[in-house]
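ok so for the tutorial part 2 we go from a plain amino acid sequence to predicted structure tokens. step 1 is just haveing the sequence, like this:
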Amino acid sequence: MKQDMNLENKSGRNEFFPEDSFKSWGDYGKAFMKTPFRLKDRMFTRSKDYIEIVEMKARSSHQMKKTLSWWDLIWFGIGAVLGSGIFVLTGLEAREEAGPAVVLSYVVSGTAALLSVFCYTEFAVEIPVAGGSFAYLRVELGDFVAFIAAGNILLEYVIGAAAVARSWTSYFATLCNKNPDDFRIIVHKMNPDYGHLDPIAVVALISIAILAIFSTKASSIFNKIATILHLFVIVFIIVVGLINANPENYSSFAPFGTRGIFKASAVLFFAYIGFDAVSTMAEETKNPGRDIPIGLVGSMVIITFIYCLLASTLCLMQNYKTVDINAPFSVAFSSIGWGWAKYIVALGALKGMTTVLLVNVVGASRYLTHISRTHMMPPWFALVHEKTGTPLNATIAMVISTAMVAFFTDLRILSNLLSISTLFIFMLVAVGILVRRYYSTGITTKENQIKLIVCVVLIIGSSCGMSSYRAMSDGWIGWAVTAPLWLLGTGGVWFLVPEVKKPKVWGVPLVPWLPSFSIAINIFLLGSIDKDSYIRFGIWSGILLIYYVLIGLHASYDASKEVESRHCMAQYVDKEIKNVEEECKKLEVGQLAKEDELGTKV
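step 2 — the prediction. this is what the tokens look like for a chain of 602 residues:
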């Protein structure tokens, strides 16, 4: 007897797995036997712009409300980024990895982030949907690569929000003149990396989620107010800090050498995470072609400048060896005799981290919404609430996941793993720009396709070589080999492969050089991350592959074939309608001819 997989309707499983492959265990068994064929299909199938913009959006039942302008996006960009890494990791990296040269680490990671911003901006303008980089990669690199990216995108958001939520507790403790562990439950029998339980972080996340669910526009207004107050505190830190600066603290500017600078920059890339969340708001933007470039690029330039000023101020106020790793700016003011000022700093940091959490929750839910529209995740998460115009199910799911991680996990583990996921995604988006500009199905010849593949492999391979060599040696021989190979790969795209697609409104400048450099610098920073983080990254990627083979592959395959079937039917109907119209015209012409003939005879 055929056993139904959806017997218990109350469980909601039908809403989670509505595809044909999951109607019964027998259907699932048949689908699973076709895994090799389906995997090959999904690996080489690319989505199209109109499918992401029209078809995918239609699967959310209701449309998101277009309420955001470029002014909103700039404030969202500043609110998303400013306040996370600068108040979370600056002290840690200055003390243990880079010293006062941490300002150069911010320059390196800021450059990498700005290059990625250019790539994200072109995609967000051309494909203004909630899916962000997931949608972009589906169009250019195919379903399989997009899914691996999707899993890491969701991991990035969960870990990013969890790290900021735990730091929120640290600064809240400073504001209350307490030690952060006074607000945590310490379980001595557990591993110290996971045994400092943080209920305050969970409460902060839930409070933010309520606002994110209520309204995107209300979230934008709250973000503006909180960010303005935060900027006043930052100006206070810079002005008072520089007045009390001690140049002797810069006497040992780079105590850990260039290796320490680059190692810190890889972790401090965390400080720039958040701008990609702004790209997910393209679907709710009034004029994406104008608003997104101004909002993304403008906010990133402002943020990089502020970060460099804050990092310099911290190390001028206090010797890097005595910088506090939990609340560096608050403690720095205590060290110069301005103990009362640490409360202002802590309050400003809390406001900054609150806006970071808000934009993170908003962005993460939009990503999950669009991923679920493709059925790679259950489509139940794609539903948009009719009254609020926000993705209610996706928001709740992401907040619960984030709260669980924030409750248990130490900040250092979170930041390193987060940087790997983020740098990996940004590298793929840069590759996607090269593919978008230089490859188009039916237009690019086989010869040019092979040239592009060889050049992209050369760019990625030489970048991996530079990263590996820098991690193992301070010499120059490896650079002498890998750098020319990178130039050869990039130059090969420029000279040998014709550009087949021009952006309609806004495009990345200096293609292919800028995207290629983005690939190189992201991979270079990946080489500075510790081995344990790569092991955790590998485990997570393995879990993603298992889920994809067992569930995501079959669900997305069925959904894509349904779309193709509808398109074929629509094309057939259009063709038949045209045929009928032509027949009608012929009959009408024939009838008129007969009438004219009769009239002539009369």
